[in-house]
Amino acid sequence: MRLNAADLTALIGLCREQIEQHCERLGRLDSAIGDGDHGANMRRGLEAVYRERDAISALPLPAALERIGLVLVMSIGGAAGPLYGTLLMELGRGLAVGEEEADFAAILAQAVAAVARRGRSGPGDKTLLDVLYPVQAEIAGHAAPLRIAECARNAAQATEMMLARRGRASYLGARSIGHEDPGASSCALLTRAICLYFKENAPS
Question: How many CB atoms are located within 10 Å of the residue 101 CB?
Fold first, then answer.
């Protein structure tokens, strides 16, 4: 996984744009099964990362990912900040100790496992992990970027019929069924933004 400063700056901007465009929808999803602030929280987090984009992009990729994760932890409220932050920080740490041609799928698997431990959740609990697990599997299978993006979107949509077992949504019991998980939705949006960039711009 080789990204230069220009690639990372562009990706930060694209992720910010995706969350901005879908902020209201994420808020509506969260209003149905949570406290309604997921869109606003994600927008605040991505804006915070965007403000530091030049300094972040000047860092080596492992350090840049760790810094993004830390910014998200500090700026996103609720459960999303620690979960997204853990994912990015663990990715950075994994890349830092790996070889130059490190197996990104294996590093991602370790990062996803860290998110699961942090959230004390797993597959089928109606969380962003229900997107991260299938995305990691597609990456391990060397799927094309568009296939990964489609997988993420389908996985997020599949959470609609799941019973929430973690977080505020779990208090609703069966009433959580019929609503897409907002964390899974934001994860799919970010995954799509990244995948489209990789499709259109082979990172150097």
Answer: 8
Q: pLDDT tens, 137-178? A: 999 999 999 999 999 999 999 999 998 888 778 778 888 899
Three-state DSSP class for residue 55? helix
> What pLDDT, on the 0 to 100 scale, is given for residue 77?
76
Q: DSSP letter string over 117-137? A: HHHT--TTSSSTHHHHHHHHH
Cα gap 95→63, rounded to integer Å: 9
> Distance (Å, rounded) from C-alpha 150 to C-alpha 119?
25
Q: State the Cα–Cα distance between residues 102 and 94, nearest whole angstrom.
A: 9
CATH, range 5-200: 1.25.40.340
pLDDT single digits (tens) 57-69: 999 999 999 999 9
CA of 76: how far to CAs of 15, 21, 92, 176, 185, in Å?
15, 17, 19, 23, 16
The radius of gyration computed from the CA coordinates of the chain, to the nearest angstrom, equals: 16
Residue predicted with more confidence, 124 or 201: 124
Structure tokens at 173: 């019991």
- Residue spans of the domains in the chain: they are 5-200
Q: How many CB atoms lie within 10 A of CB 80?
A: 25
Secondary structure of residue 141 in the 3-state scheme: coil
